[in-house]
Amino acid sequence: MEGKGKGYTTTIEGLKELFEELKKDYKVIAPTLKDGVILYKEVGSFENIAFGYRNTEAPGFYSLEKAEGYFTYTHPANSPKSFLHPPELTLIKAKASQEGLVFEEVYPEDKMCLFDLRACDLWAIKILDRVFLEDPYYQRLRSNLFLVAVECTYATLTCFCKTMEKGPVPKEGYDLLITELEGRFLIRAGSKKGEELLVSLKTKREAKKEDFEEREKKIRALEEAMESFFNIREVPQKLYSRMDSSYWEPVEKRCLACTSCTQVCPTCFCFDILEKNTIDLRESERVRVWDSCFSPSFATVHRFNLRQSIHSRYRQWLMHKFAYWIDQFDTFGCVGCGRCITWCPVGIDIRQEVKRIAG
Amino acid sequence: MKVGVFKFSSCDGCQLAFFELEEELLELSRIISVEYFLEASSSNRWEHFDLAFVEGSISTKEEEERIKKIRESSKLLVAIGACAVSGGIQSARNFEDFSQVYSSVYSYKHYETNHYSKPVGDFVEVDFELRGCPINKESLKELIGAIIQGRSFQMPSYPLCLECKRKGNPCVVVAHGLSCLGPITLAGCGALCPSYKRGCYGCYGPIEKPNLEALEEGYRRLGKDERALKESLILSFNAYNKNWRGQI
Fold first, then answer.
1. What letters, b where the CB count within 10 A reaches 16 and e where it falls short, cover B54-68?
2. SS3 of B77, please?
3. What distance, in Å, lies between the first and last C-alpha atoms of chain B?
4. Do A133 and A173 fall within a single domain?
5. Which of A41, A113, A313, B48 could be joined to A26 by an S-S link, Cβ 3.0–4.6 Å?
6. Is A155 helix (H, G, I), strand (E, B) or coil?
7. pLDDT tens digits for range B2-42
8. B206 and B59 in contact (C-beta within 8 Å)?
9. Which residues of B touch A37 (CB under 8 A)?
10. What is the 3-state secondary structure (H, E, C) of A288-308?
């Protein structure tokens, strides 16, 4: 997909101009460097974006080094989920007053721009859109969102968006799409508001045939370099035929049930609701917090945990991502970003588990 | 509500959490009456307690008797901190030859002490546990609130990693190659150490059914052997916790 309307090329100064324009209307979230890790964070200045770093990732391994260019990394360690489905979100506040209890619904009012979103995370947002279809809190944040996507020209050892058919090329859902070429950037719009902003930029020129050809070459090279780990179309049915615990028990010895995979996953949406009140009971808050199917209390009903073994929790998670999710939301729950592989402290590789179980 | 705060083999640190409840103290004083609290008051009464907080491990014969007396006098008993919940750092001796440990500290037989330092729960029934070394005031506030309001006590049963990720920390094991007991340690501290780029050393004690085999694999990946893991568990103040018994 070439994006709607014409393409333009610009320089790094042009991107800075774009950033400044976005900052006028939005809280801009972009990849930044923190303690040797690239993370999505609100950024105040264009210079704070983690340009020129390359992340090396492998199962349970992460490192960064300097690289030539700008968008040289893949995606940050955290995902857009942290902003659209925040880890802790106050939903309702209640206060005791003379007239009785007064309830106040608290809606997040942030107008956010996610700057530098890759194909995997763009898809993850599309999946969250289905999950939180009727959630007013998510919808409030979502409706004010501006999305600047960037095409990857590099994949780490844990990336598998190609296998999941979600990347590496961002297909839709962005407002603007940037591709880094030699010494310049190709920008295309994917929405009306993206088009309007792009047209208003001063530092740009219309993209030529050579610009598109160079882009094509870069993307092709990446697509060819990326491995296909399994045939995704066959996976759900095969998994349904392998529910028996003997397929899952080998995970029991290796998985800590630490919940990290579900927390770094851009689509895992499970949450818990907490009531936090003051001792005098005059004020109370209802807070939504991230939960995980690996948590021992997750499947606890009437004090009995239905999933006592770690492998039964792992089965729930993997089956949800690769099978149940399709019945529930008509899409896989996995976008192939590989975060669960990189950030597993013992390096469990979900691709290898899918291959082993559904192979 | 009559409250007592008691101390056994411990450093007194957990009791300080009561003094940190500054904002709530006024409100609390309307509802509860502190009957016995040696660290806070010189006037103490020991009759009957609706709620007893116990700090410290049981490590002498005298303590064994005293904890039973407290249990008999109390409706609800709460073990506070790693010593009361698991046996504390002093339970490191449970994994060594006692006479050697003793003679490495004292040159002559002077003190009568048990060979093992044990948690309160090994001697009497415990109604609630507050984890940590020391406990934090948030969990204390939550427990007191739950009891006063007659609702259930909301405490994490999940590992620290969940709390750590909610805070937005990248895993210190993966990002910095640090050994971290977070995956098998109960949440509740607010992921204090990993938030400052340090591995968790387990002061909140183990989750239910910690996966030791997987943790060994995790340590091996960092180039650390089983001995290093065992040592960090024994020094976690919680090695003698019931969730570890028979495993370490």
1. bbbbbbbeebbebbe
2. strand
3. 41
4. yes
5. A113
6. coil
7. 999 999 999 999 999 999 998 888 889 999 999 999 999 99
8. no
9. 170, 175
10. EEECCCCCCCCCEECCEECCC
d(CA A9, CA A205): 5
Which of A78, A97, A85 minimizes the C-alpha distance to A40? Answer: A78
The CATH code belonging to domain B2-149 is 3.40.50.700
Question: ipTM score of the complex?
Answer: 0.94
Contact assessment for residue B240 and residue B117, using Cβ atoms and an 8 Å cutoff: yes
Number of domains in chain A: 2
Residue A127: give the domain boundaries: 4-85+109-225
- Report if residue A277 sits inside a domain: no
Same domain, A70 and A203: yes
State what percent of residues in chain A have pLDDT above 90.
Answer: 91
Q: What value does the mean pLDDT take over residues A30-42?
A: 96
What is the H or E stretch that residue A316 is in?
A: helix A310-319
Q: Is residue A122 part of a domain?
A: yes
Whether A174 maps to a domain, the answer reads yes
All residues of chain B having their beta carbon less than 8 Å from the beta carbon of residue A280 are 27
**Which residues lie closer than 8 Å to A173 by C-beta, 6 or more apart?**
A122, A123, A125, A126, A147, A149, A190
C-alpha closest to that of A291 among A282, A283, A300:
A300
Please list, in sequence order, all residues whose beta carbon lies within 8 angstroms of the beta carbon of residue A21, skipping any fewer than 6 positions away.
A197, A200, A201
Cβ-count burial of B18 within 10 angstroms (0-12 exposed, 13-18 middle, 19+ buried)?
Answer: buried
Count of other CB atoms within 10 angstroms of residue A280: 16
Res B99 pLDDT > 60: yes
Which tokens hold the place of A234? 């066959």
**Strand ranges, E, within chain A:** 4-10, 27-34, 37-42, 53-58, 61-66, 88-97, 100-105, 112-117, 146-150, 176-181, 184-189, 205-206, 271-277, 283-290, 300-301, 304-305
How far does CA A282 lie from the centroid of its chain?
Answer: 38
Query: What does the pLDDT read at residue A5?
Result: 55
Compute CA distances A88 → B154, B163, B168, whole Å. Answer: 16, 11, 11
The tens digit of pLDDT for each residue in A50-98 reads 999 999 999 999 999 999 999 999 999 999 999 999 999 999 999 999 9
Q: Kindly report the backbone phi and psi dihedral angles of residue A58, in degrees, each rounded to the nearest multiple of 5, phi listed first.
A: -150, 170
pLDDT (0 to 100) of residue A245: 85
Beta strands A112-117; A61-66: pairing state: unpaired
User: Which residues in chain B are contacts of A263 at CB distance < 8 A?
Assistant: 161-162, 165-166
Cβ-defined contact of A258 to B175 (cutoff 8 Å): no
CB within 8 Å of chain B, chain A residues 47-86: 60-62, 77-78, 82
What are the respective helix, strand and coil percentages of chain B, to the nearest 5?
40, 15, 45
User: Which residue in B has a C-alpha nearest to residue A341's C-alpha?
Assistant: B174
- A274 touching B, CB under 8 A? yes
Closest C-alpha among A75, A107, A113 to residue A92: A107
Residue A4 has pLDDT above 60, yes or no: no
CA angle A210, A3, A335 (to 5 degrees): 110
